[in-house]
Amino acid sequence: MSSVFTKIIEGDLPGRFVWRDEQCVGFLSIQPLAQGHVLVVPRQEVDAWVDLPADLAAHLMTVSQAIGKAIDAAFKPKRVGLMIQGFEVPHTHLHVWPTNSIEEFDFANVDQDPDPAVMDESARRIRDALIAQGHADEVEQD
What is the spatial distance between Cα 19 and Cα 137, in angstroms, rounded to a whole number? Predict the structure, then answer.
């Protein structure tokens, strides 16, 4: 059975994509820790990140770093957080988001009902920053 992330990647469920390439995608979390919270997800369904092929793991980190730089440019946080925890969905995913404190790493603080207009604006800001960094070919335009 396909994971919820595969269903988003394949277009069976909606997603606000900011990145697409042959190996992975990046889309906004529907329960963000902060506006601009992106999930970087391999197209290949691998449950635990430690089971990823090394080249795919390296690619996910490279993409997460590019998205992190875009988040930094778009939102100007004190830091850009990166976390792999993988308890909600059995499909490896890297959380990348703007953060200003260690308290903002607590998933008990996610926004359960984010404003769709704010989500659209967050995606636009990240896409614009990615394009400015030279990633126009990978940026998903809605």
Answer: 9
